[in-house]
Fold this protein.
Amino acid sequence: MTGMSRARVARRIAAGAAYGGGGIGLAGAAAMGLLLAEVQLARRHVANGSTPHVPNAEGRYGHGYDTPGEPPLRLTMLGDSTAAGQGVHRAGQTPGALLASGLAAVAERPVELRNVALPGARSDDLDRQVSLALADGSRVPDICVIMIGANDVTHRVPPTRSVRCLAAAVRRLRTAGAEVVVGTCPDLGTIEPVQQPLRWLARRASRQLAAAQTIGVVEQGGRTVSLGDLLGPEFAENPRELFGPDHYHPSAEGYATAAMAVLPTLCAALGLWPEEERPDVTRREGFLPVAKAAAEAASEAGTEVTAAMTTGPRGPWALLKRRRRRRLPVSEPEAATPSG
């Protein structure tokens, strides 16, 4: 599928989500039925390889930066098993812990991590998760990270419904005053137990949803980072190393790779480092119509899309950036102080 056709499909899905249209099929019903059967087999393989236990990483990170009278930054994770950190054994290996410790190091300020993500969640669970995140009006998160979409594809949730639920969640969080970064639907075509030709179908469905998610999120004032093949060619080239024992969820090193790609966007959203927002043409960055930026981002892991203060003849534009990944602190993730 060409970039232009991917952009058109993404625009149609996002428009359907915004205006209450019906589901737009990501692929034929029969083919998606085959994909679902294949994923069910993969899930049985997953169940044999891992435990449903998710380490509890909630608490305070960067306590060495404590300053009397200065509250910590508040980071909340929402979404599915990827956001929760399923597949690793220690709290410090989860994406929430990695992002919290990295954010603390950049901000030189403690970070309070909360995680309301739920393994197995689909986008329609985000309304419940957002309510949990905003339950205490005096402790609104400074920034939220949402990772969602894989279960929507495998459960054949209409993409318009998925995008509608995600956009509503972003809108609620932004209205409450939180910055929002969304890791879009990962590329299910990299999952080892899924065989060809269904890997191609899974990749196509995943990328279409990711592009449509990007449009919905950017229109609500959030930023997206493409998870793609789980944030880089490392996952496709080294699946034994970067996927966990179940070959479905990332390993500790895989989550670290993901967190390194997401961290720069978190910091940019909070204005934590001086960086020109002007695009770097040497890195193929630039201002594009939102749908085209979304389609490009879906095909390249680690790419950020954020709203631009520019409107063209075809509507709003977005800034496509390929931010340089930041190394994460190696000593801090394990050192969370549990929340009281």
About this structure: The radius of gyration is 19 Å. The beta strands are 59-61, 73-79, 111-115, 143-147, 179-183, 223-225, 286-289, 304-312, 315-321.
